[in-house]
Each structure stands twice: as C-alpha cells, then as structure tokens.
Amino acid sequence: MKRPTRLSAGEKLVLTANRLLDGQIVWRDAFGQWLPQIRHAETYDAESAELALENAKHNAQRDGVVGVYEVAVQDGSAIEPVSVRERIRAHGPTVHPQFATEA
Amino acid sequence: MNAPVGHYQYDQIDRNFLQSRIEEFESQVQRRIDGTLTEDEFKPLRLMNGLYLQLHAYMLRIAIPYGILDSRQMRKLSDIAHRYDRDYGHFTTRQNIQFNWIRLEDTPAILRELADVDMHAIQTSGNCIRNVTSDEFAGAAADELVDPRVHAEILRQWSTLHPEFTFLPRKFKIAISGSPNDRVAARFHDIGILARPGVDGTVFRIFVGGGMGRTPIIGQEIFDAVPEDRLLATLEAIVRVYNAHGRRDNIYKARIKILVQAIGIEAYREAVEAELALMNPDHYRLTPETVAAIRARFAVPELVAPDNASEVLAQQRIADREFDLWVRSNTHEHRASGHIIAVVSMKPAGGIPGDATSVQMKRLADLADVHSFGELRITHLQNVVLGHVRQDRLHDLWLSLREVGLASANVGLIGDIVACPGLDYCALANSRSIPIAQKLGARFGNADLQAEIGALSINISGCINACGHHHAGNIGLLGVDKRGEEFFQITLGGRADQGAAIGSILGPALPEDDTVDAIARIVDCYLGKRTAGETFLDTLSRLGDVPFKDAAYEAV
Amino acid sequence: MKLFDLGARASNFHEQLVPLDELQNFPDARAVLLEAEHDPERLKPFLAHLELVVLRFPIFRDGRPFTQARALREYLGFNGEIRAEGHILPDQAAFLKRCGVDSVVLSEGSDPALWEKQLHRFHEAYQRAVLPEAPLGVGLRVKPN
Ligand code: SF4
C-alpha cells in the first residue's frame, strides 16, 4: 500500500486501530500494546513506521484489533494529530463533550 | 395490549425467522473472533445486520420499516439506548434509528432484545435492498390516494434475504408513496414508486436511477402504470438487469443510476421488458389474496372524535398564540374529521438534528399511547409523527411536548435542518456537519422569525456521499476538505418533492463561520426581494442565483 | 477437489471443464465454465449436450452468478448440474441453492459442517425462488426445502 507519508518538519507517525470486540479506538505503544490514550503512542519517522505498520497488521488478529493504519502527529510536548479527523478520533466527538476520551 | 396499528403484525413464522437470523449472526461474530472469517469477509455480513465500524466505535442501525413503530418498540429502543449505548439514539434520513457507541460483543444480545418486540437490523446497510421507506403521513393524510404501507411491507418481505439480490453491485434504496405530494423523494431513489388508484385496482408509477451521492441524478420514469399483480415481477426484472450489468469495478460508478445513464432509460426499459417476457408471470404474480393476507395483519385505528373537536382546536389556537404558531408549522391535515397529524420536531434550536435521549424516546412512547393509538412514525427529515391525534386534544399534546423540550415550531421551516452525522462520528467524512447545523439552528431559532421566513429547507452533508441530502435542500451545504480545514460548499435550489431538482453550486466553499454568515445574508436577500406570498424557492427561480451570490460573497 | 452438495442432485465429477469461449471447438464437451461477466444466453446452442455448468465467483461479494444460475434454470430450462466455485462463503449456501445451484467446490480448509449448518439455518423465506417451495403461513412466505 502506497500512502503519502510525506511528513512536514516536526511531524511524526503513530499507529492506530479499533479494538475488534468493542470498537474502541486504540494507539500502539512502544511495547506493541494497544491503548486507548494517544499519549501512550509510540512515534515513528517515515521509515521505521513502515516496518511497525507491517508488523502491527500482521498481528492484528492475534492482538484483537482491526483497521490498523498510521496517523501523522505533531511531535511536541503532547502528541497531537495533524488532521481534524484524527483529533476527533483521539479526543472524542466535538458535539458531545461529555463523551471525550479520558486523557 | 391491542395489536399495534400502522405496521405489519408479526406471527410465529416471522419471529422464528428473526431468531435464526440472530443465531446466524452470533456464529458469524464467533468466526470473526476466532479468525475463520477475515475482516474483509465479515464486513459485508455485519453490514447486512446493520453493524458499521465508525469513527469511535461500532454503530448499529436498526430498521424501522416504512418508518412506523409502536410504543412498545420505542420503549425498547429507549432501553437499548440506556443500557447498551450512551443514553441517546439518532433518527436517520432513511427513517431508521442508529446507536453510535455499540460493542460488537453486545450486538447479538441487542438483536435478541429487538426481536422481543419484532424488530431487527436486517439490510439497513450493505449492497442489498435496504429498508424500504414510505410517506410519513401514510394512511392518515387527507391528500393521499392510496395507503402505501401494505405494499411497503410486501416490498420489505420480498427483499428480505432475497437469494439473488443480496450481493448487488452497490446499495439499493426503494421508496414508495401513495400521495400526489411526494414526501418520500421518489425521484431520488434507486427505485421510486408512486401508487395511485387505477381502473382495476392499484397501479404503480415507477422511477429508476435516481440518487444523490457523488453524481446526483433525478430518477426517470420507467413505467407509468404497473398493475398490482405485476409489481413484484417488474421489480424483480429491474433489479435483475442491474445485478447482471451494474458496474463492479468502481464503487463510485456502481449504483443503478450510472447504468441507467450509460445505456439510457429506453434501453433499460427494453432490457426489463425482455426479462419480463422470459419470466413466468404466474410464478411472480402478486395475487389479491396475498395482498389481502398481508393487509389483514395491519390493525386499523378506530377514529372517533367529538363533533366539536375542530371548534375546540380553533378556540385554543385563538387563545394561545404560541400554540397557534406550532399548529401552523407542525401539523398536517388528516383524512378523518376531528383528527390531525402532529409532527414532533427533533430539531430544537442549537440541538443535534435527529438525536433523541432515552428519556425523550420513552416520553414519546407514552404520548403515542395517549394520543395516537400507540403509533409513531419517523420521517425522512428526522422528525417524529403522531399520525392520528384528536383535534380537541392537540393542545394537551403540545403542552406535554413542551415539558420535554420537543415543541419547536419549525417543521418545514429553516430550523428543520437535516444533517448527517459528519466527521464527529462518520469514518468517511470531510467535515463536521452537526456543529454548523447547531449554529444555524441557533441563529434562526426564533419561532416568529422562522414563520416569517417560511418554507425553506437546509440540508447538510459531511462529504460527497450526501447522506444529508444536500443536493435536494433549498439551501444545501457540502463539507469539503481544504488542506485539512473544514470548508462548506453552498448549493441553492434543490428540492426533493414532485418538482425534484438538484441544487446548483453558488460559488467557492467557505469556512464554517463564514458559511453561517453567508446563509444569513442569503436569507436577508430573500426577505428583501420577495413579493407577497413568495417562498424562498419562488424568489430564487424568479431572480436566479446572481443576487444571492452577490449577497453571500459580499463580505468575503 | 472437494464438492459439497446443496440439494437432492448428487454432483458428478467431470474430467474436462471447457471455458465458454472455447466451447464451439469442443462439440462433445459435457461441462463448461462460465465467468461472472458471461451471458448464460450464450450457452443456448450447447445446452442439449451439457451436463454441468460451473459458475465462478471472482469474490464472494460479486453476486452475478446468482442471476446466472436463475437465468439458466428459468429462461434456458437447463436441467443439468449447476456448480459454484471460487471465493464463496458458507453463509451463501441457501442463496445459492434457492437460485438453482446444486453443488459447490469447497476451498482449502473450508468446513463442510459449517456449510451444512448454514444450508439449513432458515426454515422460512419471504419470496419465491427457482426451486418449488411450499407456501408457509399466509402472504409471500415459503418453506425452503
Ligand atoms: S454524507 Fe459523508 S460524512 Fe455524512 S454520514 Fe454520509 S458518508 Fe458520513
């Protein structure tokens, strides 16, 4: 799969998916665990992301996740996705603040 | 409890079928979890049971056939919202309800709960014939020629797990109406059916190849008067041609509308006629006995009202101006004297169009029991209808609605906004559609202002898939992505009724707040330029786009 | 090759399966392979000799073979065996059968017990299909065999 992983300065990649059983959005940490909070996510540069992605996809069934892909983030003091879509995924729907993802 | 009015009443055969379907789904979930089914294989199977994987979680879309449900079913939905979701549900533009925070592992249990009240989620998604929609005023409206619900039910049954048509090139939507005032957007469906009385019983005018999405197309008439006994044969032939020849190489070109456009309506009609000539008419005949047997499973409400019901209502309208305003916009004439159709707006100013909390659902069920034989209808504009209200009790109903914040007097007015879930929930979206709907709703929230503006529909879609039907909105908004920013493209002049038209793009897309301001200026422009009695669409067609375009972009 | 029978007709193995486009070169052929894009009408001149028509599913989501099977039975009066092969799921067993398919080629690792289960999952259907099926209750419903 060829996706445009051209990253701007200060941007990194993280891996995300949904948990198979409950659909919960999860992010992959440095130990290959899938966790609900983006702050635990391991960040990769473009090359290392490719390998990690392949690996994560390979183990998706075993790990109980579905739809693994990479997301561009600002790599500042807190990890923050670049696109609105991924910010909504990371933090919850903007129209229901009561359903915000626990930080 | 008496048999529910308004929809088909299940018997043991129907209930057994639902149980088998649930067992099947449960085994599919199991196979998915143990890896026997890949996600690619499981996806179409779960979709045909209404289960999507959306942005934050699984979403379950539950069928409300032809939009009609009874109070016990509504209470069940309320209960499911409370126990399995986050205490609310969302009514859709296809008269269904969806829950946004469902767990895959809970789904078989939810389907069992639904089956307890004769409900299911079958074919609310997937590349199959979807839940059939119909007129929200069916069997009640004064302007109706034929009650379409019996035939809607026949279509529901016929299309359920159809052996040949469960793996079509793309989704397939059918709507049926029996009124000259098209309230189902028949010309925007893969198949739109208008029933009317013929010399020898009901006949059906059939449109094919309409649709919204990336390529909005108004459906064309394929047959003017199909007799009832040939209805299923004709539909069977239309879908058969599509299944064999619809494109499967490109999902954006896979709908029947593309095939009809490619070969032309005449060629399509010829192909259908060729099928019909080969088909054994006896095998496909819809017999009067079959129709009668299904009709017999619909309980009919006994409509009795005191002689002075209309007078009582007239008095109450004079006495209570706010009530009068609500009656003007939120009711429709009933065929029976002393009765009226009430539309409960699910569009409170600043709220989320189509959302209902579990408490509101329960309250609506209670009110349906008191005022409308326990019957409720979901409209394709995401509102709720109580179909058979006594005129002398309408004021009571209104007072009760007001207590739960459901008395917005805006049906058919600018506040009655249709919006898809957009980027807050939908995995395919470009932009959010709910926040801008909330802003517009708040901007035009005042009931007097809305009454002054008059009939005007706003439809908002978060992407080109057009679930918010923006092409058919008098004012349509389409969310587009401009380098990661949410922008909105404005279209004017769309309509979904018998004068179906696709809105035309006004100019460059604008950011959210600028779009709200631009719409406010468009409305001001209309108010300034209209002549007495003109609706927004009237003024637009008299003056054309230009003055509105100038107004919209003047400050940008 | 493992075969699974959907209905009463027992499947028969055929040595030679001729693709539709080559059929005219093999006048004695008894078995033909149809791709999903083929019009079954093209089999008309050969039907008298044919004992087996194999319909190939390129992917289980491609529903054209269902229409092909029905056309073979309904329009062409084909009375021989219809078989489905390619990417198909046990979840499609009853659909195939009701459209007139007799047997399927089981793919590697496919579990016949699962096919058996799915084949008999539903005891009620809501529309008439190719097979003769008895009415069930009132209305449109029938009892699949
Ligand atoms: S229109 Fe687009 S964003 Fe809106 S619900 Fe449909 S697919 Fe999602």
| Series of H and E elements of chain A | EEEHHEEH
Unreliable spans of chain A? none
Task: Report the radius of gyration of chain B as a whole number of Å.
Answer: 23 Å
Number of strands of chain B: 21
Helix vs. strand class of chain B: alpha+beta
Q: What gyration radius of chain A follows from the Cα positions, in whole Å? A: 13 Å
- The strand line-up of the biggest sheet of chain A is 3-2-1-4-5
* CATH homologous superfamily heading of the largest domain in chain B: Sulfite Reductase Hemoprotein, domain 1
Largest interface by residue count?
A: B-C, 45 and 38 residues
DSSP helix count of chain A? 3
Domain tally of chain B? 4
Summarize the main sheet of chain B. Answer: 6 strands, mixed
The major β-sheet of chain A equals:
5 strands, antiparallel
The percentage helix of chain A is 10-25%
Low-confidence stretches of chain B: none
User: Structural class of the secondary elements of chain A?
Assistant: alpha+beta
CATH class of the largest domain in chain B: Alpha Beta
**Overall morphology of chain B:** globular
Q: Count the strands of chain A? A: 5
Protein name (chain B): Sulfite reductase
Keywords (chain B): 4Fe-4S, Heme, Iron, Iron-sulfur, Metal-binding, Oxidoreductase
InterPro entries (chain B): NIR_SIR_4Fe-4S, NiRdtase/SiRdtase_haem-b_fer, Nit/Sulf_reduc_fer-like_dom_sf, NO2/SO3_Rdtase_4Fe4S_dom, NO2/SO3_Rdtase_4Fe4S_sf
GO molecular function, one term (chain B): 4 iron, 4 sulfur cluster binding
Would you summarize the structure shown here?
Chain A: InterPro entries: DUF2849 (IPR021270). The complex is a heterotrimer of chains A (103), B (556) and C (145). Chain A has 103 residues and is an alpha+beta fold.
